[in-house]
User: Which sequence fits this backbone?
């Protein structure tokens, strides 16, 4: 698998974000790629709770899209619930608010 080969490379930047702040884990969660998610989660440097420029984490993206398997994998790896760390829930953007509602529906 290509992901396994890339993860085996020395100096891999597993959390490198694109211009919109998406990490490989976020893109895999958003696109419902459970095998890629599983492989990324085997890398000890994979950061679970990073957020893109819209404030969405890998977990929020999986939940927003209804990808229960991906959301479960990310939570199982230790990701925070979408509400954790939020001081003022009313300040969340619409995407995060939808993700939280969806998470409550599948959790």
Assistant:
């Amino acid at each position: 698998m290509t992901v396994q080969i890339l993860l085996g490379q020395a100096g891999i930047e597993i959390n490198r974000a694109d211009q919109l702040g998406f990490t490989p884990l976020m893109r895999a969660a958003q696109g419902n790629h459970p095998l890629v998610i599983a492989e990324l989660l085997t890398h000890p440097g994979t950061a679970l709770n990073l957020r893109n420029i819209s404030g969405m984490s890998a977990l929020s993206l999986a939940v927003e899209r209804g990808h229960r398997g991906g959301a479960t994998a990310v939570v199982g790896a230790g990701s925070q619930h979408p509400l954790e760390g939020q001081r003022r829930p009313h300040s969340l953007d619409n995407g995060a608010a939808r993700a939280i509602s969806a998470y409550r529906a599948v959790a």
About this structure: Confidence is low (pLDDT under 50) at residues 83-93. Residues 2-7+19-106 form a domain with the Serine Threonine Protein Phosphatase 5, Tetratricopeptide repeat fold (CATH 1.25.40.20). The chain has one domain: 2-7+19-106.
